[in-house]
Amino acid sequence: MIKRKGIVASGGVGIGKTYLIREDDLFVPKKSIAYSEISREIYRFEEALIKTRRQISNIQEKISKEIGFDHGRIFEAHFLVLEDRVLIEDVIKQIKNNRVNVEYAFSQSIKKYIDTLLKLNDEYLRERVVDIKDIARRVIKAMLKEKSAKLMSLKEKRVIVAHGLTPSQAADIPKEKVIAFITDVGGRTSHTAIIARSLGIPAVVGLKDITKNVKEADNVIVDGFSGTVIVKPTKKTLDNYKKKIDRYSKEIKAAKKPKIGKAVTKDGRQIDVSANIELPEELGLVKKYGADGVGLYRTEYIFLGKRDLPSEEQQYKAYLNVARKSKPAPVIIRTIDIGGDKFLSRSDVPQEMSPFLGWRAIRFCLARPAIFKVQIRAILRASAEENVKMMFPMISGIEELLQAKKIVASCKKELKKEKKKFDENIKIGAMIEVPSAALTADILAKECDFFSIGTNDLIQYSLAVDRANEKVAYLYEPGHPAVLRLVKNIVADAHKANIWVGMCGEMSAEPTLAFFLLGLGLDEFSMPPPQVLKIKELIQRVKFSDAKAAAEKAVNFSTAKEVEKYLKSKLRKVLDKDFFNFLNV
Amino acid sequence: MARLEKQVLIERKHGLHARPATLFVQLANKFNSSIKIKHQKEVVDGKSIIAILSLGLNKGAKIKIIAEGEDAQEALEELATFIKENG
Which of A382, A404, A383 is nearest to A393 (CA)? Predict the structure, then answer.
């Protein structure tokens, strides 16, 4: 039994036999050709290029349809390589001068360029190399007339294991044959992760060397909740996980029945458990896992990877679509949280030493009101559906909130003049993710309708830890007393001002901390869709009074470990054994 | 036929890689003129993505764009502006 921990990319648990997708090493036979064969070889080359072009164009179309136009655009570089004059001329020269077969000439040219690119030792270029290898593999396959993937012919579903899936590989895989994805490389926003999430297939990425630790058709367990992959599990582990899957699928079924729908504690406190989404495609999951609404709709994807800024109409259509599909459940749209650098030439952006402390989110938006106003007008117009709320990221003080609200007010005025419909009483919230906002929550609460605590940033800022830095990542502790105290302060200040307060960070999906947050009086929890069921059931199985007592005590411990230990012991006491084990805390 | 050249500086954090390089080559291919990129002693075809990537142009790299042909003036201006804004 081998156990590995990676990055959670898509929730769910999958058990099955592995299917390895190997990176082809581009080895092709070398043959000498006669003078009279040169033109035939060149013709074969052209044919293969055209065939590959058609293939990629089909994949691009498929991805655009399944995931969205923007993800289809990642293939632009693929097309350029296929048309690359330097490469094509180099191949033809080799065929003519060295009298070798086209497969060999092509693989030599490609190898030469890949080696040069790898020598430059640059992580961006390494990613490009993956693309170039992918194209080369396709061109060579087209020339060798290889048959389509073996996976298609498999009778059973498999767990796909790969070093890193290229977008075109991911698109080629027949999804009905996939139990889960596991890869050596990648992060939460890698392509495999996005595809897996939108299809609701469990995935763990960034496992570093998983391809070296599994053989074809090994049994594996993929736990997409905790990011754990277990190769060749013992019978006991396997049985435990099988139970977990049974329970999980029962829960999905149960969630569809309205009686399980609401998260109400045994003593009658009702909590909203909502979902965070990045792409409209994830809305299906919001319903599937029984979330009470969208607690965080990130809008960055509309802006990223484009040369031109999206127009008001484009944005309006996107927001309207999400609002309509969610109805009657509420949707909280967060205005863009990106740095000025993402806008390319649109604004002159200085290089930043510490982008997390720099010019981003509301700071950027307030400095570029023209860009901000387009988004606000689009959100306001979508609010005519009456289930839309708006929130601002990275508020650090009252001035920013007032300035942003002023812009909203002026947009409302304009829309009224233009006789365009919107929700006059649209609720406006502030994300509390900067310690200065957490400590002045009483002041901010007077000027907004709700708070949403963004824990990923709040933890990083209050503990001064960059989670991506492996050397200090161990200091990133959601249960740190400082974090708990800040959260307690935010919730108390919100309630004093009679506004509700939610949380849209990963912290709210941690069972022990969710119990604590429930006890503090948090009104709304928002998390990735697959986590919703678990937290809903947890809430249904405890008493608010127990959670409250535990929360009051938990803030007084000195370390995150003590807090965790205490909350865990409390949970064990109030939950039945089965469910406690299922939570795997 | 005009042969024109212009020196530009790569200022973007990640250099002329990935997406900017793709866009640069797409733009270069719109012109009839031949486009060459000179970096240190190497001169490569500016219409080739592979050639440009092989130069490994990082932040701070000084490159010379050389355009030769009927629309050299226009090509040079547009490409230099592109580098200024995106490179």
Answer: A404
